[in-house]
Design a protein that fits this description.
CATH class of the largest domain: Mainly Alpha
Number of domains: 2
Number of strands: 0
Shape: globular
Order of helices and strands: HHHHHHHHHHHHHH
Structural class: mainly alpha
Strand content: under 5%
Helix content: over 70%
Number of helices: 14
CATH architecture of the largest domain: Orthogonal Bundle
Radius of gyration: 21 Å
């Protein structure tokens, strides 16, 4: 039955009905791209590019490439999970709720991936190849590795290589320092364990048995905390020179946040704790790169 307007009770005119359908689909498409994680990674890249001294055009291309890559990964994730989300009754997912069609999400993921390629290569062949490896790792997680014992590996690889994508676009194409790569990889692995925690029961019911599902919520929460703490430690003690007061404070705050998040391993608190620590890590990283 056609939708009816609240004012007249009659079906809306075709143009109005089209606009309403388009708006609903656009909202659904936005929600299906996992907007908060995508925005967080894109913002991190923008801050890193600015701190590393990338030119405005280079920084814009780098940030655009990461944004397009994140969009493609988010849409790919929701499309790949549709069958499992339907089985689990995940009405919070746009595809399950019917606010956007599967074909539209598939097309959006493909288009974002196509846009990502030239933007990635704009910073140079090596830098572009590194970022495309990051995106390929994320797609491999969505399509295959999510339900395996190496489910953590795409996160560690993609996060660990992201700083290299930024620095390889600088004159001379320098690689980032090892402590930065290690800190990013540890943070990515920790984010994976924390992000999976709220959905472990649904994942097991639908046959997803990645490493966090195999270890269980309590062990995964503890491991997420240790990985995030190790990431913060790498950022604090890795760079040359004396550790600042902010660095020691970050380590103490990270330890406290990890302990707080571990008290409720099955909820969203551990993931929010990881995101809070990641934000503090980014501030420290920007300061350190500006000083170096």
């Amino acid at each position: 039955m056609p939708a009816r307007t609240a004012e007249t009770g009659r079906p809306p005119r075709p143009a109005v009905a089209f606009a309403l359908r388009w708006r609903t689909a656009a909202v659904g498409l936005l929600a299906a791209c996992h907007p908060l994680p995508a925005a967080a990674v894109t913002l991190f890249t923008a801050l890193l590019a600015a701190a590393a001294g990338r030119s405005l055009p280079g920084a814009a291309a780098t940030v655009g490439a990461v944004a397009a890559g994140q969009l493609s990964v988010g849409w790919c994730n929701d499309r790949a999970d549709l069958r499992r989300d339907l089985a689990a009754g995940r009405r919070d997912k746009p595809l399950v709720a019917g606010t956007v069609r599967p074909a539209a999400v598939t097309r959006a993921a493909a288009l974002a991936l196509l846009v990502c390629v030239p933007l990635s290569l704009a910073g140079g062949l090596l830098a572009g190849a590194v970022h495309l490896v990051c995106v390929a790792a994320a797609w491999a997680y969505n399509l295959k590795l999510k339900g395996t014992a190496v489910s953590w590996l795409p996160y560690a690889l993609a996060f660990g290589l992201l700083p290299a994508f930024v620095t390889l676009g600088l004159p001379g194409a320098p690689w980032p320092p090892p402590w930065l790569t290690a800190a990013a990889a540890l943070l990515g692995a920790g984010a994976h364990f924390a992000n999976v925690l709220p959905d472990i029961a649904d994942d097991l019911a639908t046959g997803v048995v990645g490493l966090p599902q195999r270890l269980g919520a309590r062990t995964s929460a503890a491991l997420a905390g240790l990985l995030v703490l190790a990431s913060a430690a790498a950022l604090v003690v890795g760079p040359p020179g004396r550790v600042t007061a902010y660095g020691w404070g970050l380590l103490a705050a990270t330890a406290a946040t990890v302990l707080l998040g571990g008290r409720r391993p099955a909820g969203r608190l551990p993931f929010r704790a990881v995101m809070a620590v990641a934000g503090a890590d980014v501030l420290l990283l920007v300061v350190q790169l500006r000083r170096s």
